[in-house]
Specification:
Layout (H helix, E strand, L loop, with lengths): L1 H23 L3 E4 L5 H12 L3 E4 L4 H10 L6 E3 L10 H12 L4 E4 L14 H29 L2 E6 L12 H21 L4 E8 L23 H4 L4 H13 L4 E4 L2 H12 L1 H9 L5
Parallel strand pairs: 1-2, 1-4, 2-3, 4-5, 5-6, 6-7
């Protein structure tokens, strides 16, 4: 009986994988923030599933490293960009389309975080985080949108955060940038549903990446330490697998993380007064 159950599970897994491969195979997908963390994990899995990829980040050497680690290197193309340089992003979109043709899916993984109190955080840091996390992401989607509307096909996938829905201490600018993404892309979805444009807002909780290590302090310097919660978080590989599943199902909004992070979203939604008391005592680093 056990062997039969195992055989069924294996067969079901194969069928599910074939289904996924059928949908992802040959899709032209552009991944920003592809040189580390969730973005890098997505690149490897999408590459294995047969997607044609453009991968972007600031550091060309790191992008080259990621491509070298891919099993199907011929399907991976590099395009360096800096999300804070919004004046360059229209041209980057033209280059991406020139490399591969019209983009089927753009996955926005690029971003930076923050670890400091409001009164210690300079406006320059607030602006930098908004420039990268919000304006850079929005600019790329705006510049790609006309070609998607013309083809009546396209998918914007935005890796926001649980803090795109709830805010915690030491993340004021980061949470603000992620909240802003929800506001913008919910509107984009509503405006272009008739054009067959999909929007998926992905809200990870604690994922074991270097985002906290690279998070900005109030003076703009990096934190240079790993948060305990981050260090004990979900692996980027498991997170990437869940993101791909959400893309395949055209999910509007998905929460990925441990019980506490996801429970916090529902606590905020249904019991905001209680959440306000709880968040004060939360261990957020």
């Amino acid at each position: 009986m056990l062997n039969k159950n195992l055989a069924f599970i294996f067969e079901f897994g194969q069928v599910l994988m074939i289904k996924i491969m059928t949908k992802i195979d040959k899709k032209i997908i552009w991944v920003t923030g592809a040189s580390s963390g969730i973005g890098e994990a997505l690149v490897y899995q999408l590459n294995q599933l047969g997607a044609q990829l453009i991968i972007s980040a600031r550091r060309a050497a790191e992008l080259a490293r990621v491509k070298e680690a891919c099993k199907k290197k011929q399907g991976v193309h590099l395009l360096t960009l800096d999300l804070s340089e919004t004046e360059t992003l229209e041209e980057k979109c033209k280059q991406a389309i020139a490399i591969m043709g019209p983009i089927d899916i753009i996955i926005h993984c690029g971003g930076i975080s923050q670890r400091d109190k409001v009164m210690n955080t300079s406006l320059a840091v607030d602006r930098r985080i908004m420039e990268v996390n919000y304006f850079g992401t929005v600019a790329l989607s705006k510049f790609l949108l006309p070609s998607m509307v013309n083809r009546k096909a396209g998918h914007h996938v935005i890796i926001t955060s649980v803090t795109g829905i709830i805010s915690t201490p030491l993340r004021s600018a980061y949470a603000a940038s992620k909240h802003a993404l929800h506001g913008f892309f919910d509107a984009l979805r509503a405006e272009h549903e008739k054009d067959n444009i999909h929007v998926s807002l992905i809200c990870p909780g604690y994922i074991k990446t270097k985002i906290s290590f690279n998070a900005l302090m109030g003076d703009g310097s990096k934190q240079n330490t790993m948060d305990k919660a981050q260090d004990n978080g979900m692996s980027p590989e498991r997170c990437a697998s869940k993101i791909i599943s959400a893309i395949e199902r055209n999910k509007n909004e998905v929460y990925i993380g441990g019980l506490k992070e996801v429970a916090g979203i529902y606590l905020k939604r249904f019991f905001p007064g209680l959440f306000a008391k709880v968040v004060i005592k939360m261990a957020v680093t």
